[in-house]
Design brief:
Elements (H helix, E strand, L loop, with lengths): L4 E10 L4 E8 L1 H29 L4 H19 L3 H19 L6 H32 L4 H6 L7 H15 L8 H4 L5 H9 L2 H11 L1 H4 L3 H22 L5 H22 L2 H28 L18 H14 L6 H21 L1
Antiparallel strand pairs: 1-2
Helix pairs in contact: 1-2, 1-8, 1-13, 2-3, 2-9, 3-4, 4-6, 6-9, 6-11, 8-13, 9-12, 9-13, 11-12, 12-13, 13-14, 13-15
């Protein structure tokens, strides 16, 4: 691939000096992330066929329609060639998450969790909308290629990037808009796997990486991203140690891993952040799918880890899968998490060393 390709299908909204086009923007970042998302989502789709049949005795077409909307919206975020298309996908994953988290709508805890996710994401989305408007006011375009071409420091860039980052905070469950993310476990386990591994929560990290030519213009914003990541990383890891719900423990680990990615972005390492997003998508999907196997294996569907001891001899394959996912998550060599996490630590060490010279 020689360079980025902007494929325009048609002009959606002609304006006086510019226009909003409908098209796709293809480069190394969008291709690599799209391959990761579609591959992991395909595995989760196959898993969901058996999982939902186990719950309901037949396919639930409404569930898979919501699932497909979720993936379509995420692909719109990844491939859209303008901030408008990215925003359409942004709202699409928000809607699909509301429908899927509250899928067991007869259960009060599920409806409360879906409503909380919807409200908390709307707070972040207002920040994202204002960021898009202000970015358009500063640069006069919403086209990604034109934004990258015209990216240069202008007064107000810090406010624009902080507003855009506010959307990422809500979508990726960072402090202070984090409360919805662990409660989203009220949905079926395949939803948790898709939401946490490859779609909605990864959208915030991808958005910052996608717009990094603009974010990098403000050192203040990068410092704020770093602080947010470090605080969330520590907070989520500590909270996970005192929980007893298997899915919520994994959810807080997601929050912590996303914080690692944001920390890398704030320190100036977008490639390392996206590398960790890729490895995280695989081992986090593995952990959630293994957790779903454990939950369904215990026919009373408990999620309390203190009621799950001694399952190794009854579920050896699930045990092996869980161990691989846990070791990758903890950064144990030679699993993928070791290389992606260490890349961030190593790059930071190199940067500090160069500054001291």
């Amino acid at each position: 691939m020689k360079g980025p390709e902007d494929i325009v299908f048609y002009k959606f909204l002609p304006l006086s000096n510019t226009s909003v086009d409908i098209g796709i923007y293809i480069d190394k970042l969008s291709i690599s992330t799209t391959v990761t998302v579609t591959f992991v989502a395909s595995v989760i789709f196959v898993y969901a066929i058996g999982y939902m049949r186990y719950l309901f005795g037949s396919w639930t077409f409404k569930f898979f329609a919501y699932f497909s909307l979720f993936l379509f919206s995420m692909l719109l975020i990844l491939l859209g060639d303008s901030l408008i298309l990215m925003f359409f996908g942004w709202e699409g994953v928000g809607l699909a998450s509301y429908l899927l988290i509250g899928y067991f709508h007869e259960e009060k805890f599920a409806t409360k969790a879906s409503l909380e996710a919807f409200v908390m994401n709307r707070i972040g989305d207002w920040s994202f909308i204002l960021g898009i408007i202000y970015t358009f006011w500063l640069f006069g375009t919403l086209s990604l290629p034109k934004l990258f071409e015209n990216a240069s420091y202008v007064p107000g860039i810090t406010l624009a990037t902080l507003l855009l980052f506010g959307g990422a905070v809500g979508k990726s469950g960072q402090i202070p808009l984090h409360t919805w993310l662990p409660n989203a476990m009220a949905g079926p386990t395949p939803v948790s796997a898709l939401l946490h591994a490859a779609t909605m929560v990864a959208a915030g990290v991808y958005m910052v990486a996608r717009l990094y030519p603009i974010f990098s213009l403000s050192s203040t914003t990068l410092s704020y991203i770093t602080i947010t990541g470090v605080v969330t990383m520590l907070f989520a890891a500590l909270v996970a140690t005192v929980l007893d719900d298997i899915k919520k423990i994994i959810a807080f680990s997601t929050m912590s891993q996303l914080a690692i990615m944001f920390t890398a972005l704030g320190m100036g390492f977008p490639t390392a952040a996206m590398f960790h997003l890729t490895t995280h998508a695989f081992f986090k999907a593995l952990l959630f799918l293994a957790a779903g196997a454990v939950i369904t294996g215990l026919h009373h569907h408990t999620q309390n880890i203190f009621e799950m001891g001694g399952l190794k001899k009854y579920m050896p394959i699930t045990f092996g899968a869980f161990m691989i996912g846990a070791l990758a998550l903890s950064g144990f060599p030679p699993f993928a998490g070791y290389f992606s996490k260490d890349a961030i630590v190593y790059l930071r060490w190199i940067k500090i060393h160069l500054q001291l010279l």
